[in-house]
Amino acid sequence: xxxxxxxxxxxxxxxxxxxxxxxxxxxxxxxxxxxxxxxxxxxxxxxxxxxxxxxxxxxxxxxxxxxxxxxxxxxxxxxxxxxxxxxxxxxxxxxxxxxxxxxxxxxxxxxxxxxxxxxxxxxxxxxxxxxxxxxxxxxxxxxxxxxxxxxxxxxxxxxxxxxxxxxxxxxxxxxxxxxxxxxxxxxxxxxxxxx
Length: 195
Fold this sequence. Notes:
Layout: E1 2-7, E2 28-31, H1 37-47, E3 51-53, E4 69-71, E5 75-79, E6 82-87, E7 90-91, E8 99-100, H2 102-110, H3 113-118, E9 124-127, H4 146-155, E10 159-162, E11 176-179, E12 182-186, E13 189-194
């Protein structure tokens, strides 16, 4: 399966400089937040494959589900045998619709207890914020969630996609990291993964 993961900025490669065929060959697109409704609609239209997404901390202006897209915030979505868990938002650093304290994010996960049991876990974790001490920063605005680490260690997903940490913030921000058997992918701009 070929997956295109996108986050935080509308990629010039796929949007401004689009040419026919650039988005063909993908089986799934995963949006990790802070992307416009129009951009998500463009991607799903041109790619012709499903697009699932979660909200980022700057997605307060979303008025609707982008046409042709599937919001997986706070749920497990199954596609071609893959169980995909979506948890949008960032660490709370100001008032905002998609900003949470550690305690609030833990509660969101706790509300998914039955769904996690029913689906026997998940294969892909999709979030906006990273996990704490895994591609995050110490500043409150870019802090990750400790409870995401607990999800990784308990369920051992194949992939963990996140956004929020722009790779142009510093020279040593990795796009991919491994934690046990999980590949962690910072989807800033875009990343292509084959599984």
